[in-house]
Amino acid sequence: MRKEVLSKLHYNHMGIEKTKSRARDIVFWPGMNKQIQDTIMDCAVCQKFQKSHQNETLISSEVPSNVWEKTAVDLFYLQGQPYLIMVDYYSEYVEIGLLTNESSETTIVMIKSLFARHGIPKIVRSDNGPQFSSYKFKEFAKAWGFEHTTSSPTYPRSNGLVERYVQTVKKMLKKAKEDRKDPYTALLELRNAPISNCIESPNRIMFNRNVRGVLPDFLEHRRPENEPIRAKLVEKQTSQKYFHDKRSRNLPELSTGET
Fold first, then answer.
1. Residue-wise over 9-40: b if at least 16 C-beta within 10 A, else e?
2. What residue ranges define each of the domains in the chain, with the CATH number in brackets?
3. Of 119, 122, 187, 259, whose CB count within 10 A is highest?
4. Average pLDDT of the segment spanning 71-95
């Protein structure tokens, strides 16, 4: 059982501390941290993609007061294909999407699909790439009612949150391909993993719950408010059926040979 859990914890090849935080969120056994560390240190895929360069300093950005209030967006390239990434500053929830090309039109359509899922942020921050500095993107921001801010060309690290997650996601996708794993499951578990030892996962911050993934999660006793919601849904369903059935009737069954 422990071997199976360790394998699932290591499915998307997260780092040692991130994997330990995810494990503490769902399970415990004596010596667990040491076994997690040994598993990752012995993993050929993890060692292949281990960071070898020194990080540059980042310029901090003001933290918003709510989820999806301020997001950062960027494009990155993997094996010659363009991807869009958007990160919520409050929850660090990540969305990625494969683009057919890097034009403003295609970029805007992808961003609209994210807004349809999560709502329109008050602020969207990007670099000064042609997709974001175009007249079409300016008109998009005006029509959809969000403020578009850009990082300084002199200090591109001022958009450091999304730059950091670009590296995280690229590494995650490369590891998934190397290990022949499903990249979408890896993304799911990245969102379910606590941001740090004292900060909950992006999914918990964003949606007040972790979503069901390859690892078990004990939602039943963490969300006692689910039962009142369920009771209201049952009541609504019963009421809808009552009023619908008042105006309806079942058709008689056809006998053999009837049409």
1. bbbbbbeeebbbbbbebbbeeeebeebbeebb
2. 70-170 (3.30.420.10)
3. 187
4. 95
